[in-house]
Amino acid sequence: MLLNCTIFQKTDVSKCVKLGVMLLFLFPAQALAIVNAEDTTLLMDEEGLAGKIALSANGDRGNVTTNGVEGSALLRWNHGKDTEILALNYKYGQSRAVRNANKSYIHLRHRHALDEAWALEAFGQAQQDEFANLQLRTLLGGGVRWSQKRDGWRFHLGLGTFYEYEELRKSVVHAKSYLWRASTYMTADYLFNEHTKLHETIYVQPAWRSLADLRILNDTSLKVSLTDHLALSLTLEVSYDSRPPVGTVKTNVSYQTGIEYHF
After folding, report:
1. Structural domain range at position 170
2. What is the tally of structural domains in the chain?
3. Among candidates 148, 124, 127, 144, which has minimal Cα distance to 136?
4. Is residue 2 situated within a structural domain?
């Protein structure tokens, strides 16, 4: 069973603050090595606040008993030349009464527009993933962003750097690490027609001290409007870490099909 409900609306700043505080209590401030903070649903140009909250649950009963839950939230506030973005996610799962998923993250981003094409960004992030052997990863950084818009599509290119602290759950050697990484990303949105939209995001994050220490995330999603309020969402995500924690694999692939409700 999969249920994916989305809320998308504008509100005032006071409601934004209240909702943000509530979400911080609901989701632990600690998921993937790279977090995709770009979202087609919240690509708005006008002033105000937009938000998206999604909840999903799945389960099986029979030869194998599994259950899981995932919650996420994304808030975007445009005010003058500045934009604030808050992204949160928490996922938990069990199979045969044994936990097999437990990860979460929080991502904060500030963007200041210099003109229609260029903007400055500053961001911070914290995350954990029990089954990727990640106790805690925090980072703080910034950079520049170049944007282009045409009829039917948008393109954004980001370049910057961040300082990262990482602590592993089970490791005798190098349990903690501190290093600088480059922060580069490309995101594109294409509107096939008024009902079908494609979103593509690629992140590349090499370590400055060794470019062979590389992390990559590719996130592709297709959204098809079924009615004015319902949409079918298909997502494929591929992540790669050239030097993953001991006991974990370099490449992970995940996909999801869901129904979104907008109002």
Report:
1. 13-261
2. 1
3. 127
4. no
50 assigned to some structural domain: yes
Place 37 in a pLDDT band, splitting at 50, 70 and 90: low
SS3 call for 48: strand
Closest CA to 216 of 189, 188, 253: 253
pLDDT of residue 60: 59
Specify the higher pLDDT residue, 256 or 21: 256
**Would 6 be classed as within a structural domain?**
no
Radius of gyration of the chain (CA): 19
**Residue 108's CATH number:** 2.40.160.40
Tokens coding 214:
């590389």
CA distances for 172 relative to 132, 167, 242, 246, angstroms? 16, 12, 20, 10
Report the helix count and the strand count for the chain, using DSSP H and E: 1, 12
**pTM score:** 0.76
Is there a domain that residue 84 lies in?
yes
Tokens 């910057």 belong to residue: 160
Residue with tokens 């903007």: 119
E runs forming strands in 96-229 = 98-113, 118-129, 134-150, 153-168, 176-191, 196-206, 214-225
Is pLDDT of 41 > 70?
A: no
